[in-house]
Amino acid sequence: MWQLLSGFASVLEPFHFLMLTIGAALGILVGALPGLSSPMAIIVLLPITYGMEPLPALLMMVGVYVGTKLGGSFSAILLRTPGTPAAACTALDGYPMAQKGEAARALGLATIGSALGGTIGWIIAVAFLPLIAAVAVNSGNADIALIGTAGLVMVSAFVRGSTLKGLIGVVIGLLIGTVGLDPITASERFTFGSFYLTEGIPFGAALIGFFGIAVVLADMELIGLRQELVAKAVNMKMPSFREVVRGRWAILIGSLYGTGVGAVPGVGAEGATWLAYATVRNKSKDRAEFGKGHPEGVLAPESCNNAVTGGTMLPMLTLGIPGDGSTAIMLGALVLHGVEPGVLLMRDHADLAWGILAGLFVATIMSFVIGWSLVRAFVYVLTKDRSWLFPFVLVLAVLGAFASSNAMFPVFVAIGCGVLGFVLERLGFPIVTTVLGLILGPIIEYNARVALAISGGDWGTFIDAPHRIVAVALIVLLLGWEIRQAFRASHEARAPAAAQT
Q1: 8-state DSSP, 289
Q2: Calculated CA dihedral for residues 275, 278, 283, 284, nearest 10 degrees
Q3: I need a labelling partner for 95 at 20 to 30 A (CA). Which of 21, 183, 299, 497 fits?
Q4: What pLDDT digit, counting tens, does each position of 19-75 carry?
Q5: What is the pTM of this model?
Q6: d(CA 86, CA 269)
Q7: 3-class DSSP state for residue 400?
Q8: Which of 25-29, 84-88, 241-245 has the least mean pLDDT?
Q9: For 79-140, where are the alpha helices, taking DSSP H only?
């Protein structure tokens, strides 16, 4: 408990609190703008944090992460255009409420649901973090390698689209991560005689390319796009206390779904919100009213959406496995600031980990305050052509890549990774798997090789304990299940064609 209190004390220091508040405000703005995203906002801010200590840098990113969860509901309710994928479910009932002249009520419910869901998710994360961390800090090199491998497979299996494409994306990231000097023998690998590559692919530049430049290239089609608000009156009005109490089960169900699903690496909020919405609707006596402007149809997905932040922090802080794209960049930020993520984070940098967790709660409160008080300004921005932001993103991305080492080589790396990320996304390969392979690859390789060196080259070291057998079994089961699903889908696709012939 004292570590958590110490974390709050650190977060409430003036500079740290300022960074978190700025991040939350930017997050709400970015989340409200369809076409932008939390990873893009975090990656643009990444170069600004180079000269900061790790805690304020991470607090700014946490603020953005939490803020985007709330901001996405603004455009979903007022424009029927979700600012973030997870807010798509909110539009089902939020937009009909706005059409009926209840835009203020819908926005109020979304803001309250987000704050309560984020708080419940945070409480659950605080309760389980010490337990998971206690297990993690006792892990050996073989355990760390297996946990990292399981994380790669889980993300590949659970991200949207084909598991095969997810695994290919991971392999691409692993290959990028092998460039440079061998971590054990210090011999050169894939440097092709280039002095610049001896230190490996610049990590910050790669992140900027994958999550900044690639997204701008993908969203060029938004140039010139403007939106019209469905309701002109958007005065914020607090929904009645009785109405919030009536929706308490929707909030609780959404929060539990969000925290639980968010803790599974690679799933994120998109699937959790729909599960929560379907559960609340099926249990409601007014299920016929869902989709027509039911308050619980806003409370459930929004509480779920924000509770995910608590869930994603569990694997990130204890195992070094990100729950989604935003936490993947946060892991990258830890690396850039000289902090190795993984199972030893809670042992070697406990003050930082508890500071991040305390910041998550403070960011939830500040997002509520900012969203509530500045909704008019954010709603005004929704009607504008947001493509004017793209040149600024590109300029900041290039400057950030250059600032990482005061050289042009990282700029070329960022541009190359941006083009690669754009092509991969267009072909259906999720970028987050590539980035995760780049982050975890060196950690897995180092620990696997150390484990083999300690055991005298005996591969049996990876199955010489019950928990290691469980980890290997999990990896095999996930791969086997996905292969089975792929064959089934292929068989079902061929069946209609065979019937027609």
Answers
A1: G
A2: 130
A3: 21
A4: 999 999 888 887 777 656 677 778 778 778 878 888 999 999 999 999 888 888 887
A5: 0.70
A6: 6
A7: helix
A8: 84-88
A9: 91-99, 103-136
